[in-house]
Amino acid sequence: MEKLVVLGGGESGIGAAILGKDKGFQVFLSDFSKIKPKFKAKLNSEEIEFEEDGHTLSRLEAVDIIVKSPGISDDLPLIQNLRKSGIKIISEIEFASWYTDANLIGITGSNGKTTVTNMVFHILKNAGLSVSMAGNVGFSFAEQVARKKVHNYVLELSSFQLDGIDSFQPHIAILTSITPDHLDRYHNNFQEYIESKFRITLNQTEDDYLIYNKDDEVITGWLKKNSVQAKLVPFTMATIIKDLSAFIKDNKINIKLNQNLFTMSVTDLAVKGDHNTRNAMAASTAARLLKIRKQTIRDSMESFHGVEHRLEQLGKINKVAFINDSKATNVNATFYALDSMNAPTVWIVGGVDKGNAYEDLLSLVNEKVKAIVCLGIDNQKIYEVFSNCVDTIIETHNMADAVSKAYELTEENDAVLLSPACASFDLFENYEDRGRQFKNAVQSLKK
Hints:
This protein is of the alpha/beta class. The protein has 3 domains: 3-90, NAD(P)-binding Rossmann-like Domain (Rossmann fold, 3-Layer(aba) Sandwich); 94-303, UDP-N-acetylmuramoyl-L-alanine:D-glutamate ligase; 312-446, Protein-Tyrosine Phosphatase, Chain A (Alpha-Beta Complex). The chain has 17 helices and 20 strands. Strands 7-8-6-9-10-11 form a 6-stranded parallel sheet, with helices on one face. The chain has a 6-stranded mixed sheet with strand order 15-16-20-17-18-19, sandwiched between helices. Strands 3-2-1-4-5 form a 5-stranded parallel sheet, sandwiched between helices. Helix 14 (362-368) links the parallel strand 17 and strand 18 (369-375). Helix 6 crosses helix 11 and helix 6 packs across helix 12 (294-303). 47% of the residues are buried.
C-alpha cells in the first residue's frame, strides 16, 4: 500500500486525506499547529491517523508522496530537505486532478478571481449543468472529487496552489490580473510571482483556452516573451474586433468566437464598475466557450449581485454608509475600492503587510479619505506613507473598536470602508472572519 502524508490540517489538507484514503493510500496527516475541532472530528470519523503541534520526521520521510497545504512555504527547511530526499511534494489541486475526468475551469489573478469564479459557477448552475465550485473558495477540490462527482469544476486558484502542480490541466484557464502580491513568499521578486500565476497554462494544449486580461501590461508583457500552447482569448475595455476575443463597443460587451457574436449591454450588469465589467467579460467568455445559451448568460449576469466581503454594501446608519471589502488583501484590490467611493471616506486599513507599496494609493487617499483607522499589529508603514495627506490616523487593536472609532469620525453622508490591503492573520482567522466581525460590529452600532 502506497503511503501518503498530508501536511496541514485545514480545508485542503482534510480533503486530500479523505481522497487519499478513498484511493487506497495509507494516509497520515501532520500539522505543525493545533487542528481545529471540526477538522479533527472529520479525521476521526474517517479513521485517518493524524498528529498536531509538530511533525514526526521519521513518519514524513518514509512515504511515497506528500500533499502540502498552500499556506506552507516551499522555503521551509523541512520542505527543502524532504524534496532533496526525492519525495514528490504536490498541492491538493494537483492530487485531486489525478482522480477526475470532469471539465476543469481554472481561474487565477491577483484580483478579480473570486468574483469571476462565482460568476462562472452562477452561469453554469443557471444553465442546468452538473457543476461545483472549489479550490481557494468554497470546499476542498479533493474532498469534492471523493464525495460529490460532477461534470464541471470551477476552481479558484491561488499562486500557492499553482506552485504545487505538476500535470494539472484546466480546459479553460482565466487570468484576471497580475499586480504585486504575496511578495513575502516570493523573495520580494515580482517576476517569481508572475511565473507562478502563469503556471495555470503550463500543461494546456491547443485544444484548451487561456482567457486573459489584455489591458494588464504584466500579462501581455509575459505573453510577448513566452509561448503558450492554448488558444489565446483576450478580453479588453477597448474596441478590438478579431476572432476569439471579448471587447467593449457602444457600451456593450461583445464576445466574438469565430463567426459567433454575443452582445450584452454593460448597463444590464447587476454589479457596476470597470473591474466588474472585465470580470463579466471573462466569465461570459468562458460560458460561451462551453456553448451556454446566450440568454442564459444575460439572465445570469443580470441576477449576479457580487461576492460576500467584496465591496459589500451593508446599508446606512444615520446616513453613514458601511462597506465591507475584507476580501481586499492587497493594494491593487484596495485601489479599486477607493476608486469606487463617492463620499468622504473613513478608511479601515491594515493587517499583515505582504510587501505593500502603499504609495500607489496616495492620489486616491488624498482625494477620497478624510480619516484612517489602522487595524493591525504593526501600522508604522501606514503612518509613514499617509500622515502627510490625512490629518487623522488612529490605531485600534480589534474590529469592534475600529468600527466604533471610525463611526465617531463620520458626519452625515460619509462612508466607512473596510478595505485592509493586507492579509488578516495577525488578528483574524482569515479575510472571511475579518469581514464577518466587521458586519457584526456594524450590526451592534444599529442597536
